[in-house]
Specification:
Layout: H1 2-6, H2 16-38, H3 47-75, E1 81-83, H4 84-93, H5 99-107, E2 113-115, H6 119-127
Antiparallel strand pairs: 1-2
Helix pairs in contact: 3-4, 3-6, 4-5
Amino acid sequence: MLIALADENKAEKIDWQLFIPIGIQAIRTFYTRNLAKKNQPKVHHTQDSLKLIYGKEISFCYKILSQCFEEADFLTSNNGHITLSQFKEIVRETTLLTPKEKNLLIRLQKSETIKYQEFPDMLYNVRY
């Protein structure tokens, strides 16, 4: 997540001058989040209930991003797949995803081509 935030040139390499302020901010965020979690009651949700609750949100995100995926697919192969580099570019440039989601979505890809119709499941698995 921190690399995705500090990686301005998308080379997946960062220098310390960029990393330190983002790292400090992340530590503060983690600390605050952990304090808030201590005071909350424990609630366990099932996969089905989370899909029901967040299904519309994921569908909306996919609807917007699918336009970018389809455009990239049309420009290259027009077969329902996009290249890993196209996927990275689209995911990095959207404002619909958090930096953590962007980083996880990119890092979890094992293939050089991505079937973009599977994006809702990918996002669900990363987000929830």
